[in-house]
Amino acid sequence: MKVFKSVSRALLAATLLFSAAAYAEVAVIVSASNANASLDENTISRIFLGKISKFPDGSQAIPVDQNEGSASRDAFNEKVLGKSSSQLKAYWSRLIFTGKGTPPKGVLWKNRQI
């Protein structure tokens, strides 16, 4: 019985470790035709918060978000935008109410929104 408990704890710890590692990386994907070789976190944040609408080279930036509540979206919101889901919802509610912005749209991927 003790061996089983030890193995269960080890598996739980390994699962949590792998979950944390998968959650640690955030990637932003842009079109292959985008001329911007790299974007810093501040620029990405400003684009997704509606503060700027162009890439550094002057081309139009159209942010596309994943489904609300997805782990990837939550990680991006917290790590890049510095806001929780509820903070971001309040942020966009204020901008929408004042007519100063609209949040990024989601995109359909294989018949489901991501």
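The above is record 1. Record 2 follows with the same two-line structure.
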Amino acid sequence: MLAKALPYRSNLQKIADFSFERIDPTYVARAHALGPNSMHAVVAGKNYGQGSSREHAAAASRYLGLRVVVAKSFARIHRQNLINYGILPLLFVESTDYDRLEKNDTLRIRDFRHKLAGGGKIVLESANVTIETQHGLTSDQIEIVLAGGVVNHRRNNRRMGSGRDALTPRSPVDLAEHDI
């Protein structure tokens, strides 16, 4: 996290104002210009999300409308934070495709839910290129992304009476019988 953002640690809206500031000072303004219910993607290089403020990075980006990150590779913990906030992490099948996309390209994913659930490649189409990506998500992670994040997923499961809680183990542990 940028030092000047530290005083705002508990203010997500203010933290969002610093998103991608070092690499694209226009990102926040462009995200806001898309409108409050917009969705957009970020195209990234290797080890996307590496750093000490990974959860803030995912939460702030989601607040601004980020729904998909296409990268050459992800920092492991940040990848999970993206999923937890309902942001789909996609990997380039061919890392050289990174160079084929341009700033402000509009990307389309046809038959998104079917492709995501099928576990196969997800094809991104723009006016100029077609790019193959893959996600490697588990079925639980897919449900979380489709729900818009782990909080929504948990809330939906409670409403449907599934008894399943996305934030706790599938097999409850009796703490009286175990050292913690």
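Residues 165-180 have pLDDT under 50 and may be disordered.
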